[in-house]
Amino acid sequence: MTTREGLLRLGPDLPAVPLEIAASYRARTRGLLGRDGIPGAALLLTPAGSVHTFRMRFAIDVAYLDRRLRVIALATMAPNRLGLPRLRSRHVLEAEAGAMAAWGLRVGALLSVEGPDGRTDVLTRPGRRRGVSGGPARHDPRGTA
Hints:
Shape: globular
Structural class: mainly beta
Strand content: 25-35%
Strand order of the largest sheet: 5-4-6-3-2-1-7
Distance between the termini: 36 Å
Largest sheet: 7 strands, mixed
Number of strands: 7
């Protein structure tokens, strides 16, 4: 199971939030299942476009993030619910219900993620080529790029 640790930066003058990053299929599937809470911290599911709370023991706040980590939607979900998929969502941030309001998180906020060593590229897979626009490099079968 691939779960990494990091820090979620909500803004320049706000404290960082401890973060778990679930980047593998297994880690995303498990999510917060089997836990009694995640006090003072958050879980980032990547990639993800929707979530559910079936078999969960507590209500959660959910922030849907685009590929640049901008908040595109916020929701609070009670246990045993199915969240609506968000078409532009690339990542989903989960925390205990009420945490995101306490942090002052709003739609349109731009977040950043740091690894434990301070690196900000923790969501980029090693060896992944990036194009000029910041997206994945495209392969041109004709040999021209």
